[in-house]
Structures are given as structure tokens and as C-alpha cells.
């Protein structure tokens, strides 16, 4: 019997056919009208949304509310559990920088972080010496949505530039704060990417501006006390296919302009000795050449895939001549060992790498060349490298966790090789790691490759196929889903679920080739790997098809849409958060924020008939057909600039039209948020509780 009974009639989106012909192929889109013609303006002012579209989205929300009405108490219970695992008045361990140490903390009941500093060698546990620089809760008062971009302090520690987005559209407004008084200066910088890079004297900073299509297309230089209209244009990127950001070096010698898409990089450097100079090109963009830079005093260290170094190598070049012809190898390419990022300090070079599917931190003595690694013994774990805020230091910071081990924060002395445990994540409601099992298993995919799966379940969970399972996947942009500690999923695991992460192709879990084998023309490997993971979990009786619920968001939402079309019978339910499901239409619309920069990931169907057909072959929206779909929950955000709200809206309309089954197709649109969902930490927990309530209801575990 279905868990969803006695539902009112579901909304039916009217059909308004729009035809489009490309490469001699004509397609009809019945629901194209759900894309607001004024979407650019609407992201800045949601009140101007077309009334017919708003009425439809609100009708979908009402239907969803009716379908989930009997889970309200469960949602409250789940929320209370998740909240109970959070130390509400938690604080970070401050990071030393000059005369101060900087950190964040929360207050009990607070949604937003508060940024503070203390004297450099002050007692980190003494709350009386905290000087609050920015109170997120106070700034968020009266706003339905509020997201901080953090606060960046100037090198002389006198001022900070901070940013916020109060619509969910990711257009950030910047303000400048006097850090001694806490007062904001009159400066107001709008439509930015968030954050700024300070000039050494603390009198000016650099920032990116987003154009009307939400692309970071220009870098400006702002002098404190002058209006934004007078800011000097430092660099403009004319190619809409490239992202751009600006940052500073630890030594305050350079401002970095980082220009890149998903496969090509270009850096330009501005010396802080002459802030009016033209940025210096390091290595011109060549399709497929990636590099990133960090300063090492008299040299730059360059992480690159040049000369066939698929898993990357580290080069160095003189500061006065960093051009590519002067690059010299320092850390060679090792096939199968993917270098993820690198940092340089006065006496050490540090990098995070992934080998045999597991992360490790490597430290190299710059003088002797001697190397050593920091690694751990668990089957699956996560490492985070935060480094240091100062250049002349031997101490870096890193974090460690696993699916069963709460996060631990360490300071590590690179010279003595001594690690100091600074903090262990507290779970106020209690957590006994011995009650749980974490495993790394491997599922054979369609072509014989082995797909890693990380599992978490209670020791007393029966492994006879009867346990429900939440199988999570992403598989895009080379992003690796870490096997880290997640207190939220314990609410499922403690109710008998197996929680599984499928490390499918499209990520970099098994090296750069793993990424390349899940993009462009090979994109369907991502979907087949996920189905192979489901097959393995069913075969090995960790769960069964009848008890399996799939979850993914954004590009992982595309995955959800694809597997729903390819193997609907293997899933009891599917949760698709801000799902990128209208792939072909989006990649054909070069006005959308992410379309040109995304062509290296998916292919350009405007210019290429081959990629038009490839994308058309898997695009979830375009491949919805008459079949029995499982229960589906789609989640969207009205002001989302990454995956626009109309993607899940169109997809749900077509699913509901085509499905031959009785399982409900639900959609929830957050009318006050964008891609990241709710902005407050507890508001976000409410959203997760809602998703988990859907999973529990579908699994019959309410």
C-alpha cells in the first residue's frame, strides 16, 4: 500500500508548446513558459515574478504540503534530533595572524555566525576577551533570507570588508567596517561576487562585479571613501565562458586574478608596489592547460597539469619572471596520485593529495627536499587542509573525520612533526562511535571498473536486504564527496537505514581520469555507476531495490533525473535537490549564468550536433517517458542562479503528465532562497528534516 493516500488532485501545468530547431532537429517544449522572461530582474526583486508562474509554484507547494502533512510531527522530531547534535554555542579555534587571532562563534539559538578576534596569545577559552567584529544574527534581523560572505580584514587589522546576500540570488553587497569601533563606513559596493582582496595599506581593496547574467566579468579597485561609480576597472574578462576571482598573497606582494573554466586556467598578477599597473599575464590560456599559483618568497609554486601531468605536478618559477617558459619541476607527476591543492610557507611546501581513493597531506622541506605525509588508518576518512594565515610559520592546521569519528582539528608542526589536538566536535546529545560501522566496498560497473561506496550503519542493522537505504551521489566537476562525519544522517541510520555514498565517475575520487571518464561524451558513465552501486547493495543484501531511496542535488539532481528514467524500478523513492534536469535547454541558452562556463563539462550543443545528440540522449527532462516512476521529491529555490527554479518545475510537470504509476511526484520551491537553500543553520536543518521525513515515509518507517 502506498504511504501517500487520499491526496488532493495534483496541479496540472498547462501546455504552451514552444518549438526549437537545431541541427535540423525540431523539439517541442510544452512547459517552456515556466521560465520567466524577466528572470535577471526577478533574481534581484522576486516580487516581480509573473503571477501565473507564481500561482503554479504556490499550487505545487500546497500539494506538497498536503502530501507531507502527516509527517509534521516526524519533521519536528528529526529537527530536534539534528539540533541536539549541534553544540549551539560552538566556536572555532582562532587562527593567528599578526597581533590577533581570528575566529567565529555561535550563540544558543542563533542562526548566523559571529566573527571575532582576540589578542594573538590570548586564552582561546576566555570569552571575555572576544572582540566581536560582525554579528550575523543582528545583520539578518527582519530578512527572510540572509547569507554572509564572511569578513576579510586588512593587513593592518584596522578595517574589514564584509558581504551579504539577502535574496538568495548570490549578488552580494559589500560594506567596509572599522574593526575597532564596529561601525560601517559609508562605502557600499553592490552586485559583487562577495569578498574583497585588500591592498597592503588597508586603504583600498579589489573585488569582482557580476553582470546581468550573473557572471563575474570585471575586477574593480575601490578606494575607501569614494563612491562605487568612481572605482577603477582593473581587468575585464570578455569571454562569457570563464569564471574570475581575485585574491591576495600571504606576503601582500601580489593580487591574484584567477580566470578559469572547467579545463583551462589563466592567471594575471598585480604587484602591490604599483596598484595602478596593468596586471601581468603568467601563462596565456591554452585549452586543457590548468594551473594555480601560490607565493613562496622568491619563487612562485605552480600546480599544473602541463606536459601531460594528468594528476598534476608542482613547478616553481622566479617571482620576477613567472612565465611558463621559466617553470621548473619540483614535485613530479605520479600517475594515480592526484594533487588537489598546494600551499607554501617560509620553510615548507604543503599539498593535499588523493592516493588509492584516500586523502593525505604531504609536507616538503624547501631546503632539503625531504618529504613526509600525514595519513590515517581507517578504511574511509576525510581530511581538510586549512593551512595558516601567516607565511613565516612552521605550524599548519588540518581537520580529520570519518563516517563514525567526529571531526578533529589539529595544529601540526611541520618541523617537529608533532600534531596537537585543538578540538573534537562535540555531539551534545551523545554519540558512541562503537555503535556504528563504516565500510568502503566496491561495485563493479557496466565496463568492469570498480566504483567505491562508503557505507555507514548501526552494528545491529540486519544485512539481509530488509534495511532501507539512502544512496547519495553527485558525480560532476571533479568534486569528491568526502567520507566525513555527518551528524544529520544519524537520524536515518538510528532508524535502521544504511547510509551510502556512491563515489561515481565525474568526481576525482580515483584520480583525474575518474573525472574525465564521467564528463562530456562519457557522461552516462556517471549514471551507470550509480545504478551499479544500487545493484551491488541489492545483491549483497545491504538493502534491496524495494527499500532503496536515491538522493542528489544540483548536478547530482541531474543524476537523480537520469537514473529515474533509466532504472525507475530499482528505487522506491528519489530526492532531487535543486536538480539540473533541463540540461539540453539550459546548455542551448547562452544568456544563463552558468551556460558558457559549463560547455567544457557537458559539451556545447549550440555549435556541435554531436553534443546536441549526446545531451539530448540523457537530459532528464527530455527523456521522461511513459513508465512507472518511483515517488519523487524535487526541491528548488526561486532566486537560484545556478539551477533555475524552472528546471525542477518543468521536470515535475512532465513527470506527472507521463508517469504510469501511482507514486506521488512532489515539488517544494523555497520562495525566499536560492541554490544553497535556507541560510540559517537551523533553517537548513528544517529542510534536511523535511527531506528525511520524505525518505522515512517512502520507506514505511514513520
TrEMBL record:
Family the UniProt entry places it in: Belongs to the peptidase S9A family.
All residue ranges annotated as the Peptidase S9 prolyl oligopeptidase catalytic domain in the record: 485-701
Domain of life of the organism encoding this protein: Bacteria
Domain Peptidase S9A N-terminal residue range list: 12-424
Any single Pfam family the record assigns to this protein: Peptidase_S9
PROSITE patterns tied to this protein: PRO_ENDOPEP_SER
Name of this chain's protein: S9 family peptidase
Keywords: Hydrolase, Protease, Serine protease
Region called Disordered, residue ranges: 1-23
Lineage, highest ranks first: Bacteria, Pseudomonadati, Pseudomonadota, Alphaproteobacteria, Hyphomicrobiales
Amino acid at each position: 500500500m502506498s504511504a501517500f493516500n487520499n491526496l488532493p488532485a495534483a496541479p496540472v501545468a498547462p501546455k504552451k508548446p514552444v518549438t526549437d530547431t537545431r541541427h535540423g532537429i525540431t523539439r517541442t517544449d510544452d512547459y517552456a513558459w515556466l521560465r520567466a522572461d524577466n528572470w535577471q530582474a526577478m533574481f534581484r526583486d522576486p516580487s516581480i515574478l509573473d503571477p501565473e508562474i507564481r500561482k503554479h509554484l504556490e499550487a505545487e507547494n500546497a500539494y506538497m504540503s498536503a502530501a507531507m502533512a502527516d509527517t509534521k510531527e516526524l519533521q519536528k522530531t528529526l529537527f530536534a534530533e539534528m539540533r541536539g547534535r549541534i553544540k549551539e554555542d560552538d566556536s572555532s579555534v582562532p587562527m593567528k595572524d599578526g597581533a590577533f587571532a581570528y575566529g567565529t562563534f555561535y550563540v544558543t539559538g542563533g542562526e548566523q555566525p559571529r566573527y571575532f578576534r582576540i589578542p594573538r596569545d590570548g586564552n582561546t577559552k576566555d570569552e571575555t576577551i572576544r572582540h566581536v567584529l560582525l554579528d550575523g544574527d543582528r545583520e539578518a534581523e527582519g530578512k527572510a533570507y540572509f547569507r554572509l560572505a564572511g569578513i576579510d580584514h586588512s593587513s593592518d587589522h584596522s578595517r574589514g570588508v564584509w558581504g551579504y546576500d539577502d535574496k538568495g540570488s548570490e549578488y552580494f553587497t559589500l560594506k567596509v567596517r572599522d574593526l575597532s569601533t564596529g561601525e560601517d563606513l559609508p562605502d557600499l559596493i553592490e552586485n559583487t561576487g562577495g569578498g574583497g582582496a585588500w591592498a597592503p595599506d588597508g586603504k583600498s581593496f579589489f573585488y569582482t562585479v557580476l553582470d546581468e547574467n550573473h557572471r563575474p566579468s570585471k575586477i574593480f579597485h575601490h578606494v575607501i571613501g569614494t563612491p562605487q561609480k568612481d572605482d577603477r576597472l582593473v581587468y575585464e574578462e570578455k569571454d562569457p565562458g570563464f569564471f574570475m576571482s581575485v585574491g591576495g598573497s600571504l606576503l601582500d606582494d601580489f593580487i591574484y586574478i584567477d580566470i578559469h573554466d572547467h579545463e583551462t586556467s589563466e592567471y594575471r598578477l598585480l604587484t602591490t608596489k604599483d596598484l595602478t599597473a596593468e596586471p601581468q599575464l603568467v601563462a596565456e590560456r591554452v585549452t586543457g592547460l590548468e594551473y594555480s599559483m601560490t607565493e613562496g618568497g622568491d619563487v612562485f609554486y605552480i600546480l599544473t597539469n602541463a606536459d601531460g601531468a594528468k594528476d598534476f605536478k608542482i613547478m616553481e618559477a622566479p617571482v620576477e619572471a613567472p612565465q611558463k617558459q621559466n617553470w621548473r619541476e619540483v614535485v613530479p607527476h605520479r600517475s594515480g596520485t592526484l594533487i588537489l591543492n598546494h600551499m607554501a610557507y617560509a620553510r615548507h611546501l604543503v599539498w593535499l593529495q588523493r592516493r588509492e581513493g584516500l586523502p593525505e597531506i604531504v609536507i616538503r622541506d624547501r631546503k632539503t627536499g625531504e618529504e613526509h605525509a600525514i595519513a590515517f588508518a581507517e578504511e574511509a576518512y576525510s581530511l581538510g587542509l586549512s593551512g595558516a594565515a601567516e607565511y613565516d610559520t612552521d605550524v599548519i592546521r588540518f581537520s580529520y573525520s570519518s563516517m563514525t569519528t567526529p571531526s578533529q582539528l589539529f595544529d601540526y608542526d611541520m618541523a617537529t612533526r608533532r600534531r596537537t589536538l585543538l578540538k573534537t566536535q562535540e555531539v551534545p546529545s551523545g554519540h558512541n562511535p562503537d555503535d556504528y560501522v563504516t565500510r568502503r566496498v566496491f561495485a563493479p560497473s557496466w565496463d568492469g571498473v570498480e566504483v567505491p561506496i562508503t557505507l555507514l550503519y548501526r552494528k545491529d542493522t540486519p544485512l539481509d536486504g530488509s534495511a532501507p537505504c539512502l544512496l547519495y551521489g553527485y558525480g560532476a566537476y571533479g568534486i569528491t564527496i568526502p567520507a566525513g562525519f555527518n551528524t544529520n544522517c544519524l537520524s536515518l541510520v538510528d532508524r535502521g537505514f544504511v547510509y551510502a555514498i556512491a563515489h561515481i565517475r565525474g568526481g576525482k575520487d580515483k584520480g583525474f581520469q575518474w573525472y574525465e571518464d564521467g564528463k562530456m561524451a562519457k557522461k552516462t558513465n556517471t549514471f551507470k555507476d550509480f545504478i551499479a552501486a544500487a545493484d551491488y547493495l541489492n545483491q549483497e543484501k545491504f538493502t534491496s531495490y524495494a527499500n532503496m531511496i536515491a538522493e542528489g542535488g544540483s548536478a547530482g539532481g541531474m543524476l537523480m533525473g537520469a537514473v529515474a528514467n533509466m532504472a525507475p524500478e530499482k528505487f522506491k523513492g528519489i530526492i532531487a535537490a535543486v536538480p539540473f534536469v533541463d540540461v539540453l535547454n539550459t546548455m542551448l541558452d547562452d544568456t544563463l549564468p552558468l551556460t558558457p562556463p559549463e560547455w567544457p563539462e557537458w559539451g556545447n550543443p549550440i555549435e556541435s550536433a554531436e553534443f546536441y545528440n549526446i545531451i539530448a540522449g540523457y537530459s532528464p527532462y527530455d527523456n521522461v517517458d511513459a513508465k512507472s516512476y518511483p515517488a519523487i521529491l524535487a526541491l528548488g529555490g526561486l532566486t537560484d542562479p545556478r539551477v533555475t527554479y524552472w528546471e525542477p518545475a518543468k521536470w515535475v510537470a512532465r513527470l506527472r503528465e507521463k508517469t504510469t504509476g501511482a507514486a506521488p511526484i512532489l515539488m517544494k520551491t523555497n520562495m525566499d532562497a536560492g541554490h544553497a537553500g535556507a541560510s540559517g543553520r537551523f533553517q537548513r536543518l528544517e529542510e534536511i528534516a523535511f527531506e528525511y521525513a520524505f525518505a522515512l515515509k517512502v520507506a514505511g518507517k514513520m
